[in-house]
Design goal:
It is a single chain. The chain is an alpha/beta fold and 318 residues long. It is built from 12 helices and 12 strands. It has helices at residues 15-19, 21-28, 46-50, 57-67, 111-120, 131-141, 161-175, 214-220, 251-254, 272-281, 292-296, 312-317, and strands spanning 37-43, 71-77, 84-89, 106-107, 125-129, 148-153, 179-186, 195-200, 205-209, 243-247, 265-269, 285-290. Strands 4-3-2-5-6-10-11-1-12 form a 9-stranded mixed beta sheet, with helices on both faces. It has a 3-stranded antiparallel beta sheet with strand order 7-8-9. Strand 5 (125-129), helix 6 and strand 6 form a beta-alpha-beta unit. The longest helix is centred in the middle third of the chain and has 15 residues, at 161-175. It starts with 14 loop residues before the first helix and ends with a helix. The structure holds flavin-adenine dinucleotide. Flavin-adenine dinucleotide (FAD) binds at residues 52-59, 74-75, 84, 98-104, 106, 128-130, 151, 153-156, 158, 245-247, 265, 299, 301.
């Protein structure tokens, strides 16, 4: 999924370059770095937390917007489990599709365009995604909207969609059945273990931890990321989004009384809109204000791109 100009249709208006978050960010984006307020958070609802990758904060925010009659946009697996795509939902029953981290680049497709009339209608809209996707939407819209809540995840980088397809094909070949469900961060053995759970059409469950699963290994060792992720333009304290959500990997050291192996979130609050919503959701969470810079020592992906391994090109050629 790389942008390409169709020369036969191009009228040289320059809009694509003006809207590109990488090419235009320095010129048109006057956001200044600002250290946000940080909170350590766990959703009180244990079931909700176990079905989320971290502390379940995304689901709390999504429920809040849906209850107001709004829509939520985020990343969902396709039915064949071979790709991920951004979709828009307007009811609680569909929320499960957006929950959980999918470790592959999500296809944005026409979602920015589809959201515009909904945002303009005045409905509450929550858009969630990687920081570069948030940047993309902001540049596409060209202005802020009070009824649009932007929720970004701290991002390690996104693996190649082609690799996910190959991985699922390989799993289907090995088990002789179609993969019907995938959970990249199943908490069966705990939050910190990184377990990949697959289910096939014969109802067989295939579970492997980071140590055994080649896909997770390639992801976390940085072999299969989109080339731009090694030099990501979206690593900063710029208040692009209203909220940033991540795993609070340092919780055991910084706030041991909060640690359990069921998932703890690090929540960064960048704007007043987010502060007001967080205030309203406090009775649904356990939370503690936390020093942002101390917390981010354990989440360096918020501010730095991951290192590119030397032999990554050989790997991608295979
Ligand atoms: C590719 C990727 C890399 C990440 N890397 C880190 C990291 O290095 N450090 C860290 O602290 N946290 C990282 N996270 C974030 C973390 O895994 C959780 O997603 C986040 O803490 C929210 O957890 P939750 O329990 O609140 O909600 P969950 O229900 O677990 O999260 C769901 C949210 O993630 C979004 N999402 C899921 N998959 C994708 C995708 N492929 N593309 C765009 N958005 C997606 C959904 O739209 C939804 O907003 C990463 C997430 C992804 C998707």
């Amino acid at each position: 999924m790389y942008p390409e100009i169709d020369k036969s249709k191009c009228v040289n208006c320059g809009l694509c370059k003006a809207k590109c978050p990488v090419l235009s960010s320095l010129k048109s984006d006057n956001l200044k770095d600002k250290i946000p307020n940080a909170f350590t958070v766990k959703a009180k609802d244990l079931d909700l937390r176990l079905n989320s990758s971290s502390g379940g904060v995304f689901a709390l925010l999504a429920n809040y917007i849906l209850k107001k009659g709004g829509v939520v946009c985020g990343a969902a697996m396709t039915m064949d489990c071979k790709s991920v795509k951004h979709i828009i939902i307007d009811n609680h029953e569909d929320l499960y599709k957006l929950r959980g981290s999918k470790y592959v680049q999500s296809n944005i497709d026409t979602v920015y365009k589809d959201l515009l009339p909904i945002i303009k209608s005045g409905k509450q809209v929550l858009f969630s995604g990687t920081p570069c996707q948030i940047d993309g939407l902001r540049h596409y819209l060209g202005k802020d909207y009070d009824n649009l809540l932007l929720v970004e995840v701290i991002c390690h980088g996104v693996p190649s969609p082609e690799l996910l397809k190959k991985y699922i094909n390989w799993q289907e070949y090995k088990s002789g059945a179609q993969i019907v469900k995938i959970d990249f961060r199943h908490k069966k053995c705990g939050w910190t273990v990184f377990g990949n759970r697959l289910e096939n059409s014969k109802r067989k469950v295939l579970y492997s931890t980071l140590r055994e699963d080649p896909y997770l290994l390639m992801f976390l060792r940085n072999y299969c990321l989109r080339p731009s992720c090694y030099n990501c333009h979206a690593k900063s304290f710029k208040p692009r989004a209203d909220f940033t959500l991540g795993d609070f990997w340092g919780v055991k050291e910084v706030l041991p009384e909060f640690y359990d192996d069921k998932g703890v979130s690090l929540v960064l609050i960048h704007k007043e809109k987010a502060r007001n919503i967080f205030e309203k959701l406090k009775n649904e969470m356990e939370y503690k204000e936390t020093d942002c810079l101390t917390a981010l020592k354990y989440n360096i992906c918020m501010l730095e791109s991951v290192k590119k391994p030397q032999n990554v090109i050989c790997f991608l050629k295979i």
